[in-house]
Design a protein that fits this description.
about 45% helix; binds NADP nicotinamide-adenine-dinucleotide phosphate
């Protein structure tokens, strides 16, 4: 799909990886709606990058745990741009709870993680489906995690939410075909990000140790993989892992 002149909605565009994705999509020719929850300044800074690339930007409040907030955000994007061609489900929430500490992972935390990281992306895809299907079709890219491919990440809830998001990618690839291609990027540790800072240190150290390239994933490679999946016309239901080559995450997708 030619990206010049397309409209993209990047959830969590105020965050570290969302900034890189918004910037890369803008440089590929997209106007970008950049969502935030608490970090409005971050979203505005990302919007500045989009505009510096010569494209229009729309910073937008969105709490994807709340259905009415999703409906409002979709309406605002359509009102501003007349439609939407690309959804990047990048927004997510994590908390560091080592896997063996089951008593610390209570029902409330489980629900917050699953509502944000799995239910939200589904509701966003559902709300945007008529717009993504319109014209000559659209793209969804879900940002998951290697924690969804193997049991290790900030918490059991996060790992399960990302495993669910990877399978949601498969299900939506079937549901939205043939008009919309749905794919996934699964980062490993991305150094310096807020999410990485919330990882238990042993998990971060394990990711560094296992990366056969001697370095972990980068936000730029996640962004480039997202653009590739938006451009591609014959790829759907797939996952690209960006983690410096952790053997345990190879042979998935
Ligand atoms: N960083 C890593 O090492 C790493 C590794 C694997 C996978 N990932 C995945 O990469 C993606 C981006 O992560 P990141 O490192 O850029 O994290 P980040 O800097 O913490 O950004 C997370 C973004 O999600 C938004 N968000 C949080 N709760 C939300 C909600 N209820 N509704 C809508 N948006 C919400 C945040 O908004 P506000 O800041 O405005 O509140 C922020 O924009 C996530 O899907 C994450 O799971 C990251």
């Amino acid at each position: 799909m030619e990206l010049e002149g397309r409209v993209a909605l990047v959830t969590g565009g105020s965050g570290d990886i969302g900034t890189a994705i918004s910037d890369a999509l803008a440089r590929a020719g997209c106007d970008v709606a950049v969502t935030f929850v608490g970090n409005e300044d971050g979203a505005k800074a990302t919007a500045g990058l989009v505009e510096a690339a010569g494209r229009a930007a729309l910073p937008l409040a969105l709490d994807q745990r709340v259905e009415s907030s999703i409906e409002d955000a979709v309406a605002a994007v359509v009102d501003r741009f007349g439609g939407c061609d690309v959804l990047v489900n990048n927004g997510a929430w994590n908390i560091g709870i080592p896997f063996p500490e089951l008593d610390r992972l209570d029902a409330e935390t489980w629900d917050r993680v699953l509502e944000t990281n799995l239910r939200g992306p589904y509701l966003l895809a559902r709300a945007l489906a008529p717009h993504l299907r319109a014209g000559d079709g659209g793209r969804v890219v879900n940002i998951a995690s290697v924690g969804g491919l193997m049991p290790g990440s900030s918490s059991i809830a996060y790992s399960c939410s990302k495993a669910g998001l990877i399978h949601l990618t498969h299900c939506l690839a079937v549901a939205l075909a043939p008009e919309v291609a749905v794919n996934c990027v699964a980062p490993g540790l991305v150094e310096g990000t807020r999410m990485a800072l919330r990882l238990p240190e042993a998990v971060a150290a394990g990711a560094r140790r296992q990366a056969v390239l001697g370095k972990v994933g980068s936000a730029e490679d996640v962004a480039d993989a997202t653009v590739l999946l938006c451009r591609a016309d014959t790829i759907t239901g797939q996952t690209i892992v960006v983690d410096g080559g952790m053997p345990g995450a190879m042979n998935f997708g």
